[in-house]
UniProtKB/TrEMBL annotation:
Source taxon at top rank: Eukaryota
Function of the molecule: Component of the Mediator complex, a coactivator involved in the regulated transcription of nearly all RNA polymerase II-dependent genes. Mediator functions as a bridge to convey information from gene-specific regulatory proteins to the basal RNA polymerase II transcription machinery. Mediator is recruited to promoters by direct interactions with regulatory proteins and serves as a scaffold for the assembly of a functional preinitiation complex with RNA polymerase II and the general transcription factors.
Gene name of this polypeptide: MED20
The protein, known as: Mediator of RNA polymerase II transcription subunit 20
Molecular function GO labels: transcription coactivator activity
Organism per entry: Oryza meyeriana var. granulata
Main location: nucleus
GO biological process, one term: regulation of transcription by RNA polymerase II
Subcellular localization(s) per the UniProt record: Nucleus
Length: 132
């Protein structure tokens, strides 16, 4: 098995319902790129949103503060459970990937500059006898 992992951000067509046929097509696409269905896979993904801070504006009942354009509005955090000491952050708009220590989510929580909005946990066990 190759030591390289790919994270693909896939959006089904609007209005499409995820079913076994679509899953089989997505797997076939990944296999055509050299991917394989093998073993157990587990990961956690966290979507973070930037938190604008301007207490004077908020206290006065004004409009919410705007973020400077150089500050990403969102980032995606990925923890691969087969690499417990690492944490990856993805800035999609800037096409950057940051590799950090696994304590990164705790640092983000203490800084309070980004707030975790959604956490998704995935666990898949594939057996050679299964087919789609």
């Amino acid at each position: 098995m190759s030591p390289v992992k790919w994270l693909m951000h896939w959006h089904p067509n609007p209005g499409a319902t995820l079913n076994s046929q679509i899953l089989a097509e997505a797997c076939a696409c990944a296999e055509s790129l050299g991917g394989s269905k093998d073993g157990r896979w587990k990961t956690s993904i966290i979507f973070y949103r930037a938190m604008a801070r301007d207490s004077a504006s908020a206290a006065a009942g004004g409009a919410p503060p705007q973020l400077p354009p150089e500050i990403p509005r969102e980032l995606l955090g990925v923890a691969l459970h087969e690499r417990p000491g690492l944490y990856f952050s993805i800035l999609r708009a800037q096409r950057l990937v940051l590799q950090a220590d696994s304590a990164f989510p705790q640092v983000m929580e203490k800084l309070q500059s980004y707030k975790a909005r959604v956490t998704l946990n995935f666990e898949v066990t594939l057996h050679p006898s299964l087919s789609f």
